[in-house]
Specification:
Chain A has 362 residues and is of the alpha/beta class. Chain A has helices at 2-11, 25-35, 43-49, 64-73, 88-101, 115-125, 163-178, 270-273, 284-299, 307-325, 339-344, 347-361; strands at 19-21, 38-40, 54-57, 77-80, 105-107, 132-140, 183-190, 200-206, 212-218, 228-235, 238-242, 246-251, 264-269. Chain A has 2 domains: 2-109, NAD(P)-binding Rossmann-like Domain (Rossmann fold), CATH 3.40.50.720; 111-281 and 306-323, Dihydrodipicolinate Reductase, domain 2 (2-Layer Sandwich). In chain A, the strands form 3 sheets. In chain A, strands 7-8-9-6-10-11-12-13 form an 8-stranded mixed beta sheet. In chain A, α4 runs parallel beside α5 and α5 packs antiparallel against α10. Chain A is globular, with a radius of gyration of 23 Å. Chain B has helices spanning 19-28, 32-44, 58-67, 84-103, 109-115, 122-137, 152-161, 164-178, 189-198, 221-230, 248-256, 271-284; strands spanning 4-6, 49-53, 76-81, 147-150, 181-186, 205-209, 234-238, 261-266. In chain B, α2 crosses α3 (58-67), α6 (122-137) packs across α8 and α11 packs parallel to α12. The chains are: A alpha/beta (362), B alpha/beta (287). Chains A and B meet through α1, α2 and α8 of A and α1, α4 and α7 of B.
């Protein structure tokens, strides 16, 4: 991750890349030899020695808090990769510190910078599909496909797992578009291949008002070429399906704000919605978020993806983790005294009790 | 280069407009025979160059054209490397160095040196790059590969870093080892052209999005049109239909307006679409 940040930052006409820090002296040697960039293996030394305006933090998650704190103490503007630490308390403290220091603070939740999702937000804010009553939040892709893995992503203590990766992206995007859930329930954090961490997360969200949602994320799905996030919204006047490439809007009737939309289906594509970026490496949104950070520094504006909004995302992740550990309150088949035991019984036993419960009903 | 080149996005579930279409295409081309059938259709329409990623399934396509050399004596491949997802997935699992190690041949002396973590002298990075290129080129053995491209993810990543030396290393290895012309795919053509020229790569082959709506033409349409007019690089236009956002006739009229655009690459799945596009390009190309 850090390398592609470096590539985009270095290409930005309004940023002068001063130095980079990595624990691998090997990578630093190659970079300094061929690109002339100054390298450090200790970020404290870098912060102490170089005159800086801002820093980009793209380390493994468990180092985010420490490095961001050090940079904020020096009054620097900070861009940090997601998820933004692992504990909500720490995340909120950093958000407060950044606000007190009045520096621009941004977290790399790049889905906020995709044109299709912003178009969905615009239509929802105008209530074009009426009162929102259900949201489906999905993220699938091929990250962990085998029962092994030696990187930090597969270690719980390092902030690994689908929860702090795919799920946080999906939660953050939903937070951005419809607001934070006020409660979560029925959460399942399940491992498909990983030993130490979750590979899939499912949960029911309660939003304010009469709106609920379902989260489904799974990073062990090989049928996707890369991470795919899809949101679906149901309102009293229609629905919206949106992913990074297209937005499909169904309207039952035409409210005054409908503009060029018609009743029935309306489809718009990223090709017409996306604004050009100054430099492209692997998706407009990655470039756009970096440019946005720079423009916020120049104008003093607040970022679209702040430490505070990222803290909310970490909080929801913590809610999911806590909910998943609660004793299940599943509705069991009649005739069974211990619902939790049902799931662990062999199939034949379960079938018997199902038959018995049917007989009971008759 | 031929005027019309055939692309491969449609075969591997890449569609910049719709995930549903991408999935439908992935289903349709699950079987390599169905890919080969489309390539044969294109060949019958006079399209004799296949510009393709080094996706592992391309190896089976290569096998078909090796085995049927008599039927397709003039068929050529323009390999585009690396197949980025392969490296990205390995890097996510093994880290950057671990991923590089995993792609190096095990019995190789330099590979062993590299695996041992010996610090890099100038020659090592050149050797490393050569090993990686050779690994990607293996599947094209005994086939004609007169142009070899560096994929846009790699080109633009290196371009951003300012790692211009990598372009020179790529170009010289491709020329010396494969007697091929180096090509560079990019989303930032005006910037790339300036930097390639600086790195001493003159009149390079550059493949970039060139379309009527400016889709993924970083630096802006004006900079692109100036670049085209200068004629200091050999251009291959891709994404001319902007993933279907521009109607075919309009899209091709725009691209064919520029005499300095040497080739056009497009992908299609049906014989009818292939034929129509080929005929349109032939008709709109000034003689």
């Amino acid at each position: 991750m850090g390398l592609s940040h470096q590539s985009m930052v270095n290409a930005h006409p309004e940023i002068q890349l001063t130095a980079v820090c990595d624990t691998s002296g090997y990578v630093l040697d190659v970079l300094s030899k061929y690109t002339g960039v100054k390298g450090y293996t200790d970020y404290r030394k870098l912060l102490a020695e170089e005159p800086l305006d801002c820093v980009f933090v793209a380390t493994p998650s468990k180092y985010h808090a420490e490095i961001v704190h050090a940079a904020l103490e020096r009054g620097l503007h900070v861009f940090c990769e997601k998820p933004f630490g692992l504990e909500p308390e720490t995340a909120y403290r950093l958000a407060e510190l950044a606000e007190r220091k009045r520096v621009v603070n941004q977290v790399g939740y790049h889905y906020r910078f995709l044109a299709t999702f912003n178009e969905a937000k615009r239509l929802l804010d105008q209530k074009l599909i009426g009162e929102l009553h259900h949201v489906r939040i999905e993220a699938y892709g091929p990250v962990v496909l085998r029962p092994k893995g030696a990187t930090w992503r597969s270690q719980k203590s390092e902030g690994g797992g689908c929860l702090f990766d795919y799920a946080c992206h999906a939660i953050d995007l939903a937070n951005y578009i419809v607001g934070c859930p006020i409660a979560v329930s029925g959460t399942v954090l399940n491992s498909v291949f990983s030993n130490d961490v979750d590979d899939e997360i499912y949960s029911t969200f309660q939003f304010s008002g009469n709106c609920h949602g379902q989260l489904a994320t799974n990073w062990s799905d090989e049928s996707y070429r890369k991470m795919s996030v899809k949101l679906s919204f149901w309102g009293t006047n229609g629905r919206i399906n949106v992913d990074r490439q297209e937005i499909q809007t169904y309207l039952r009737s035409l409210p005054p704000a409908a503009g060029e939309l018609t009743t029935g289906w309306n489809v718009r594509y990223t090709t017409e919605l996306t604004r050009p970026v100054w430099f492209y490496v692997r998706g407009e949104e990655y470039s756009a978020q970096i440019d946005h950070f720079v423009q916020c520094i120049k104008t003093g504006a607040t970022s679209l993806s702040t430490f505070r909004t990222a803290s909310d995302t970490i909080l929801v992740a913590a809610m999911l983790r806590e909910d998943a550990m609660q004793p299940r309150t599943a509705v069991a088949l009649r005739g069974t005294r211990n619902p939790a035991a049902v799931a662990t019984q062999p199939a034949t036993r379960r079938e018997k009790s199902f038959v018995r419960s049917l007989l009971d009903r008759l | 280069m031929d005027r019309v080149l055939f692309g491969d996005n449609q075969f591997f579930g890449v569609n910049h407009m719709s995930e549903e279409k991408a999935r439908a295409q992935a289903m349709r081309f699950q079987d390599t025979a169905s890919i080969v059938q489309v390539l044969e259709d294109a060949y019958a329409e006079g399209i004799k160059t296949f510009m393709c990623t080094t996706h592992e399934r391309i190896a089976e396509v290569c096998e078909h054209f090796r085995a049927n050399r008599q039927r397709f004596p003039d068929y050529q491949f323009y390999p585009c490397m690396p197949y980025a997802h392969k490296y990205a997935n390995a890097a996510a699992e093994l880290g950057v160095l671990g991923a590089l190690r995993s792609f190096l041949p095990e019995d190789n002396k330099l590979g062993a040196l590299f695996r041992g973590g010996v610090s890099l002298a100038r020659k090592d990075i050149e050797g490393l790059a050569s090993l990686l290129i050779d690994a990607e080129m293996k599947m094209f053995a005994d086939l004609q590969t007169p142009v070899i491209f560096l994929q846009n993810v790699a080109t633009d990543f290196l371009l951003g870093l300012g790692f211009d030396e990598a372009f020179r290393i790529f170009a010289s290895h491709v020329r010396e080892r494969y007697r091929a012309e180096p090509g560079f795919i990019t989303m930032n053509a005006p910037l790339l052209q300036r930097r390639l020229e600086k790195a001493g790569i003159e009149n390079p082959i550059i493949c970039a999005n060139i379309n009527k709506i400016g889709f993924r033409m970083c630096g802006g349409m004006q900079a692109y049109e100036e670049l085209i007019a200068q004629g200091r690089c050999r251009l291959v236009a891709m994404s001319v239909f902007a993933s279907g956002a521009v109607p075919p006739e309009q899209a091709l009229e725009y691209v064919c307006r520029f005499p300095h655009i040497e080739s056009i690459v497009f992908g299609a799945s049906s014989r009818r679409n292939i034929a129509q596009t080929k005929q349109l390009i032939d008709r709109l190309t000034p003689r």
